[in-house]
What we know:
There is one protein chain. The protein has 15 helices and twelve strands. The chain starts with 10 loop residues before the first helix and ends with a helix. Helix 1 (about 10-25) runs parallel beside helix 14 and helix 7 crosses helix 8 (about 160-170). A four-stranded parallel sheet has the order 2-1-3-4, sandwiched between helices. Strands 6-5-7-8 form a four-stranded parallel sheet, sandwiched between helices. It is globular. The protein folds into three domains: about 5-95 and about 270-290, NadA-like (Rossmann fold, 3-Layer(aba) Sandwich), CATH 3.40.50; about 95-180 and about 295-305, NadA-like (Rossmann fold); about 180-265, NadA-like (Rossmann fold, 3-Layer(aba) Sandwich). By secondary structure, it is of the alpha/beta class.
Amino acid sequence: xxxxxxxxxxxxxxxxxxxxxxxxxxxxxxxxxxxxxxxxxxxxxxxxxxxxxxxxxxxxxxxxxxxxxxxxxxxxxxxxxxxxxxxxxxxxxxxxxxxxxxxxxxxxxxxxxxxxxxxxxxxxxxxxxxxxxxxxxxxxxxxxxxxxxxxxxxxxxxxxxxxxxxxxxxxxxxxxxxxxxxxxxxxxxxxxxxxxxxxxxxxxxxxxxxxxxxxxxxxxxxxxxxxxxxxxxxxxxxxxxxxxxxxxxxxxxxxxxxxxxxxxxxxxxxxxxxxxxxxxxxxxxxxxxxxxxxxxxxxxxxxxxxxxx
Length: 309
């Protein structure tokens, strides 16, 4: 397998090799909803951050290949400490996750020592380890609402999800000025133009969009919740990274779906291609490790999150 001419293989060849490798290595493949469709086709499970975290914690495979970004592979490793966890690309990472450091969070905690620290799951293990509870885009609102009203809350790192759950819960949150560039770039004006062009369509957006855009939407939700919505509705504007739109058009060609904006592309998610993912599995490259103390601290935060499923 190591001497194979990878560039000579067709997609069908790669699909066959992937299936054989999964059996040979007892490997379970996870792919995020934003991955290219060719990559999603080799996955045993495709989902959002919360869904992948749950599935990763339940699989009995000895090896996991995570087709996504580094922070998701770290979460998978933390929840599966005895499994070998591989990334599909050596440097697919998240700009949002790295805008602020653990030192930044420690400084904030020192300023607000009694605050609950809620950390969005799309963050590095080092940041999760400094938090008291992790959340996802689908359960952030529920987690914030569970915290006593007299308790201060630090919410990191995404300011837009923080703004949305603060608005929904009528709470004041202490936040970083960090954001997802894919969602942040969408303006209210662009959103209103799409509303005018498709007046009988429902608009669904991810809470990583700005608060103004979220307020304009019919539904603000995670990618997994977007999929559930499209299953029941035929005319929908999809307001998140373009990979989810591609997935939905593939599975529901009869539905009338449009992307909120074609520029919503995550360059890091798109670093993974079919050949790269299969080769990473074949050669067992890009293994993810998390320092033991960091792993233990981050797992406490993740375990609290899993209670809100």
